[in-house]
Write a structure and sequence with these properties.
By secondary structure, the protein is an alpha+beta fold. It has helices spanning 23-47, 52-89; strands at residues 5-12, 15-22.
């Protein structure tokens, strides 16, 4: 059975975005919005940048870099687990 979607509105950098999400997704979306808003404030102070597009680009770069790091880390961990399992099976 498909979960029913609800309508919510979120605000990022002074702009409102209507979204349709499940009740389960709502908390994650609101947490993500809070994260973005907090990062905007930090970058504004740290780099004295006022252009919201530049700030959003920096946030996207941070998130993409972190995602790439975690992806590589996960792939390396999966390789190590596979190697260890193969060693155990070949004993």
């Amino acid at each position: 059975m498909l979960e029913e979607k609800i309508n919510i509105k979120v605000s990022i950098a002074g702009r409102t975005y209507p979204l349709k999400v499940t009740e389960e997704e709502e908390e994650h979306v609101r947490d993500a919005v809070k994260f973005i808003e907090d990062r905007i404030k930090i970058i504004e102070k740290k780099y004295a940048i006022k252009d919201i597009q530049d700030i959003q680009a920096l946030i996207l770069l941070e998130l993409a870099s972190e995602l790439n790091f975690l992806k590589r880390k996960t792939e390396n961990e999966q390789k190590l687990i596979t190697q260890k399992l193969n060693q155990l099976l070949n004993i």
